[in-house]
Amino acid sequence: QRIKENIFTNTKIFIISPHSRTLLAKVLAKSIANLGITDNNISLITADQLSTLLGKWAYEDDREVVLGETLSYEKNHFALTMSSFLEYLAYSGVSYQFLGFLLLLSVVALIFNILKQIIGLDTFSVYYPLLFAIIVSQMGYTFSLVFAALAVISVIVSNAITNRIQLLVNAKKAFLISMYIFLLLAAMGVDNVFEIGIFNYTIFQNSVAIVAIFAILFIMERLIDGIKFFSKSGILELFRYAVIIAIVVAIFSSRSLQYFLISYPDVIFLIVIANLLVGRYTGLQVVEYFRFSPVLRNISEEE
Predict the structure, then answer these.
(1) d(CA 224, CA 155)
(2) Where are the alpha helices (DSSP H) in 2-42?
(3) pLDDT of 77-134, one tens digit each?
(4) Against a cut of 0.90, is the pTM above it?
(5) How far are the Cα atoms of 56, 270, 286, 288, 294 from residue 283, in angstroms, in the given order?
(6) Residue 275, phi then psi, degrees to nearest 5
(7) Burial, 52: exposed, middle or buried (Cβ in 10 Å; 0-12, 13-18, 19+)?
(8) Beta-carbon count within 10 A of 201 CB
(9) Strand, helix or coil at 204?
């Protein structure tokens, strides 16, 4: 494009891929829109169909060969399905990764609904880890764990000082944020002076990172205030945190699941129905079977 401007308006393009049309139509939509390729000029073919295509070109003068599945992004082409609607959004410029992430969130919401309604985990143990897991999946483990450690230190130091000095709630929050920023800048300074290489500074070019940084602070503050450390209940709560974060990060890291949801986004309607069914569950939760196991044993013995 820098040497010579190429006009792709009437160019016939063949794409060889083992992936299905339902996936590639969304993955390629933004690039196709940027190139300005006209509709029905893109065909998806397999490796076997490539041999057929070359054979036709070798023995025929007419290059207008119709082979494979075609891609079309005309507005009147889209049917009233979730899949075609996502194709339209992707062609309009919405990243297919973003669309896949939203669909993954619906799966996570269903899993958390099951954990709450059927398994019996507390809501506190679910939604705060969800937010932290989203940060981990988007920012990486090093970023999340370093700032989580800085946040924990900030909360402990801030609580130790404000317990001796009586401050209003707003003043405590302001002091905590100031302490967090001070430790953050100090950590960056140490990292640069000693060339440790802990931080990936390209992340900070995106202002969204600030939201993640302060979300970690408030998550850690809620965690420390809500958990009694060095107790059985506190250890159990931390274990729940770790399990939930591991589940969510594994789901967000699953490319196969993301590609499946992008290919067949109509599954979201089944997820909605499943949420309604799980929400109406009124039986004993799994944790209650363990909690009331002595009572249930006595009942069976009496019978």
Answers:
(1) 8
(2) 21-27, 29-35
(3) 555 678 888 888 888 888 999 999 999 999 998 988 888 888 877 655 567 888 888 8
(4) no
(5) 65, 22, 9, 10, 18
(6) -65, -40
(7) middle
(8) 10
(9) helix
